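The records we work with from here on pair a chain with its fold. These numbers are not coordinates but entries in a learned vocabulary of local backbone shapes. To see the layout at work, look at the sequence and tokens printed below.

. . .
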Amino acid sequence: MEDPREICGPIAHIYRSHLAYMEKELEAYRIGSGQFNFLMVLYHRDGISQETLAKILKVSKATSTRALQSLEKEGYVYRQRDENDHRAYKVYLTEKGKEIRNVVLEKLISFVNTLLSDFTPEEKEIFRRLIQKAVFNLLEPGFEPPCPDRSDDMT
């Protein structure tokens, strides 16, 4: 590769655009750009520890605590002390958090559809495979990506 910025720059641009889009689209629901990713993980693994959430999303414990406190304040999640480790919390979706799932997914699908709007079906599949391959190169042992490898929620 001649210039790593040719890869890192576009990835960073997609990431920032994604955050800005989701923040704008979820503003009416009082879900910030740093919070919807927590919901996305919980939609696949409700009841995981706060520490595991932070590790999966690669954020600090302090960032995780702030995001979860905001989601808790808005009634989307609740935290409960872990029975086996009283210093730790497990995080669960509330009914309100479960009910907003389709809204969050619709916004996410809309973003992805815009991102891939001029891709052929074959290009979409190649892009999906390559991006997953790149993600797996960065995984820490024991932690899977916040989104499953193949999701029927996105086309």
